[in-house]
Specification:
single chain; alpha+beta; 4-stranded antiparallel beta sheet; 4 helices; 24% strand
């Protein structure tokens, strides 16, 4: 079961005049993540488009997998190229690691241990 995730978020707005290209890059990204899943490099992924809410986040993808596999993915040349392409088309693209599943329990245990060390 996946213990780690990559949260890939993006803003509400495409770069003005590049809206059609942003949709093309979005579809390419979904195909890429699907290929990563088929190849076993990630366990699964989910994409969400957010309703208007007054904030900057417009949507996100959550890629699920093992921590080491996703850490390697972050420095993979194709992943970096896809992220760079997206950041040139859509405002506010970011990639953030996330603890999920068993990783969440480990993260909380690490937090609790740090609290104990500091009290």
């Amino acid at each position: 079961m996946a213990d780690y995730g990559l949260f890939i978020g993006w803003g509400q707005d495409s770069v003005r005049g590049r809206e059609a290209k942003s949709l093309e890059v979005f579809n390419e990204s979904i195909e890429y993540w699907g290929r990563l899943q088929q190849e076993g490099r990630i366990e699964s992924f989910e994409v969400a488009l957010l309703e208007p809410h007054g904030g900057d986040l417009g949507g996100f993808a959550l890629l699920r997998g093992e921590r080491d596999a996703l850490a390697a993915l972050r420095v993979d040349e194709e992943f970096e190229r896809m992220s760079t392409r997206a950041s040139l088309i859509v405002e506010g693209v970011g990639v953030v690691g996330a603890l999920i599943g068993d990783g969440l329990a480990r993260g909380i245990a690490t937090y609790q241990e740090a609290i104990g060390d500091l009290t």
